[in-house]
Amino acid sequence: MLAAAATGALVSWLLAGWLCRRLGGLTGDTYGAINEAVEAALLFAIAVLWTQ
Fold first, then answer.
1. How far apart are CA 10 and CA 37, in angstroms?
2. Distance CA 6, CA 24 (A)
3. CA within 13 Å, CB half, 21
4. In whole angstroms, how far apart are CA 41 and each of 19, 23, 52?
5. For the chain, percent helix, then strand, then coil, each to nearest 5?
6. How many CB atoms lie within 10 A of CB 34?
7. For 4-44, how does the pLDDT look when each residue is reduced to its tens digit (9 = 90+)?
8. Could you tell me how far CA 13 lies from the centroid of its own chain?
9. The whole model's pTM is what?
10. Distance between CA atoms of 52 and 35, rounded to whole angstroms?
């Protein structure tokens, strides 16, 4: 559970920083994109951890 929280926090922090530098700020669309990216990263992390 802690690994999932850390993965979500890291992905959202990195993507938000990149989008903020690239676009000059964050909008509702970028928050939605961050949400989808975090969800995909968590599903991938769960799949990797499940197979171990």
1. 11
2. 26
3. 5
4. 17, 22, 17
5. 85, 0, 15
6. 18
7. 888 889 999 999 999 999 999 999 999 999 999 999 988 98
8. 7
9. 0.79
10. 26
